[in-house]
Write a structure and sequence with these properties.
Helix content: 40-55%
CATH architecture of the largest domain: 4-Layer Sandwich
Number of strands: 12
CATH topology of the largest domain: Phosphatase 2c, domain 1
CATH superfamily of the largest domain: PPM-type phosphatase domain
Shape: elongated
Distance between the termini: 96 Å
Number of domains: 2
Length: 302
């Protein structure tokens, strides 16, 4: 009996340490030596404790769900509408999130007869990445109010990001469009090159810029400039789009992106957007997204 009692006490201590007290749903057996009425009382008390814990967890989950929903609403308001027009320019955009809150963002701001387009991608996914988008959008707006040069805006944002602690890296493509002349000045901070498809079928890659945001405070950035002609189409995207994989593990890739862009170049920006997204979805089939995905089409009518 001495051995049995010792084993019981040892097991009871083990369950107390690794079971209920640690928050796990481990069932604890009441010592059979305890009188039956007392055992029933203990079980009732434990059941009540579990019910209280469950109610608390349900309340916390509901509050978290509400907070995420509200954060997603803020993100949507920060980003550009799905379709906007400036003169004979049409801008269509869409963002898909792996989780509730995307780390990608796209904004459009019109100031002094110029349109500022900003596509960003925060490294990481979920709530943390989504919350950083709000901050990055604010930094872009702050520097855009001081200077209109894309490379100066990007360099200023980069310095601010580098001064902060625990900030994830981010890529950024920023462009300033003159809707009247069609001039497009741009700068990329480690973002996938934008694709400019000319009306004659010629494809240009817009890759001027510099490092990812947050790598080096003294990083220098250079801007590029192109003339946006009638019938030309500009495509901006995040790496999540070209990195979408099919059931064979193959990536959608830039080559397929370019091919589809050429095939649909006579369509409107809105129609081209949905056609390309449909192509990516068909390619991935049943595979889920592994990264947030954003796509922007800018078209200039004839």
């Amino acid at each position: 009996m001495a051995v049995a009692t010792s084993l019981w006490d040892e097991g009871k201590d083990c369950m107390t340490q690794s079971g209920f007290n640690s928050g796990l749903a481990t069932r604890r057996v009441v010592d059979p030596r305890v009188p039956l009425p007392r055992r029933r009382s203990i079980r009732k008390t434990r059941r009540q404790e579990l019910e209280i814990k469950l109610a608390t967890l349900q309340k916390d989950y509901a509050e978290l769900h509400t907070a995420i929903f509200e954060a997603a609403q803020v993100h949507r308001r920060l980003c550009a509408p799905r379709l906007v027009r400036y003169g004979n320019f049409e801008i269509a955009s869409e963002i898909f999130a792996v989780r509730h809150l995307p780390g990608d963002f796209f904004t459009v701001e019109e100031t002094n007869n110029r349109v500022l387009l900003t596509l960003g991608d925060i490294c990481g996914k979920g709530l943390a990445a989504g919350m950083w988008t709000t901050h990055l959008v604010g930094l872009v707006g702050t520097h855009a109010a001081v200077t209109c040069e894309p490379e100066s805006i990007v360099a200023g944002v980069n310095r601010d990001v580098c001064r902060m602690t625990s900030v994830p890296l981010a890529s950024l493509f920023l462009a300033r469009l003159d809707p009247t002349s069609g001039r497009l000045d741009y700068c990329s901070a480690g973002h996938p090159p934008a694709l400019l498809l000319r009306a004659n079928g010629q494809l240009e890659s817009l890759s001027q810029g510099g490092l990812l945001l947050g790598v080096l405070p003294a990083a220098t950035y250079v801007s590029g400039s192109v003339e946006f002609g009638h019938g030309d189409v500009l495509l901006l995207y995040s790496d999540g789009l070209v990195e979408s994989v099919n059931e064979k593990g193959e990536e959608f890739g830039v080559a397929r992106l370019q091919e589809h862009l050429r095939r649909t170049r006579t369509a409107s920006a809105d129609a081209m957007l949905f056609s390309l997204l449909g192509a990516v979805q068909d390619f991935a089939a049943t595979r889920s997204l592994v990264d947030d995905m954003s796509l922007v089409i800018v078209g200039r009518g004839q």
